[in-house]
Amino acid sequence: MPRWNEDQSHRVCLIPIPRLSDLGQKTRDAGIYIAGALFALGWWFFIDAVIYSSTYEGDKPVSVEFVDWVPGICSSLGMFIINLIDKASLRGDSFAFSGDSTSIVWKARVILFIGFAFMAGGLAGSISVLCVKYVIPDHGDPFTFWGICNVVQNAAIMISAAILWVAQNTESEYSFSI
Amino acid sequence: MTEAPNSVFFLPVTQSVIGLSFVLALGFLLVIMSCALYGNWWPLFVVATYVLAPLPNAIFGRFAGRDDMMSDYQGGFADIGYFLTGLMIVTGFCLPVVLAHAGVITAPAMIMSITGGLLIYGTIISYSRFFSEEEDF
E strand or H helix at B11, and its extent? Predict the structure, then answer.
C-alpha cells in the first residue's frame, strides 16, 4: 500500500491509520449486517427494560418513563441524519452544482456535526439519566439495571452508526479508486 | 458460472437436500412446541421475523440493480435491505429472551424457541449458500 507514504505530508496522525478501502464487497455487506444487528440489539435492551418495568410486581420507587425514551430517540435521530448525507459531498470532489463546491461541503459538514451532536447527546443523556435517576438515589438491583440498559442501548446505536459509516466509506473509496 | 456442486457436507446433493429439509422441519417443530407445550402462544411471533427477514433483501436488491448490467449500481438501496435484514435476525432472537425475562414465557420455552430459530436460519443460509447459482466476478 504505497498510498500511506505518498501523502505523508498531509497526515495528521504519526502512526498511519490503515485504509479500509481494500476490504471489498463482502466485508462491506457484512459490516452493514452487523450495524443493523447492533441497532436492533440496542433497542431490544431498552424494550426489555420497559417491559420489565411495566410488568414488575411489587412496589417500585422508579419506573421507566418518557425521560428514558429521549436519549434513544436522540441517538436514532442522529444516526438517521448522518446517513442522509451523501458521503461524496463531504470529500469536496463532488460535482459542483452552482459556483463553488466549498459551500456544499460546508453544508454537509454542518449537517454531519448536527447528527453526531445528536448521537453524543443521546449517549451523554443516557448516562446522566442513569446517574440522576437510578444511581444517586441508590434504589438497588433491578432498578439500576433499567438505567444500564439505557446506556447499553445508546452505546450500541453509536457503535452501529460507526460501523455503518466505515462500511459505506469503504464502498465509496472502492468505487472511486476504479 | 460454476457448475452445481455435486456434494455438500460430504454427502450427495439429494441426500443433503433431504437432510436440510428435516432440519428445517425440526426447527419449526421446536418453535411450535415451545408454544404448544406451555399453552402460551407468544413465541409464535418469532415466526413472523423468519418470514420478514429475507424480504428487505429481495425488495431492495431489485432496486439496487446489481444484476442489471445496463443500469449503474446503487448501493444505498441494497444497504437498506442488509440493515433491515440484520435488524430482523436479531429481533428473532431477542424476542424470546425479552419475553422470558418479563416472565411471559418460561425459560425452557425460550431455549426451544431460540434453538428452533438457529436451526431455521442455519438451514436457510446453508441452502442459499450451497445451492444458489454462484456467480464469479
Answer: strand B11-12
Q: Under an 8 A CB cutoff, do A29 and B97 touch?
A: no
pLDDT, one tens digit per residue, over B111-123 is: 999 999 999 988 8
pTM for the model stands at 0.80
The minimum CA-CA distance between B87 and chain A, rounded to whole Å, is 5
Q: Please, what is the angle between helix A66-84 and helix A141-177, to 10°?
A: 0
Task: With cut-offs at 50, 70 and 90, classify the pLDDT of residue B126.
Answer: confident
Burial of B124 (0-12, 13-18, 19+ CB in 10 A): middle
**CB proximity B98 to A under 8 Å:** yes
Nearest alpha-carbon partner for A83 in A146, A18, A36: A36
The C-alpha torsion from B110 through B114 and B119 to B121, rounded to 10°, is: 140
- Picking from A103, A171, A56, A20, the residue whose alpha carbon sits closest to that of residue B75 is A171
User: pLDDT tens, A74-111?
Assistant: 999 999 999 888 777 777 655 555 556 677 788 888 99
Q: Would you kindly state where each structural domain of chain A is located, as residue ranges?
A: 24-168
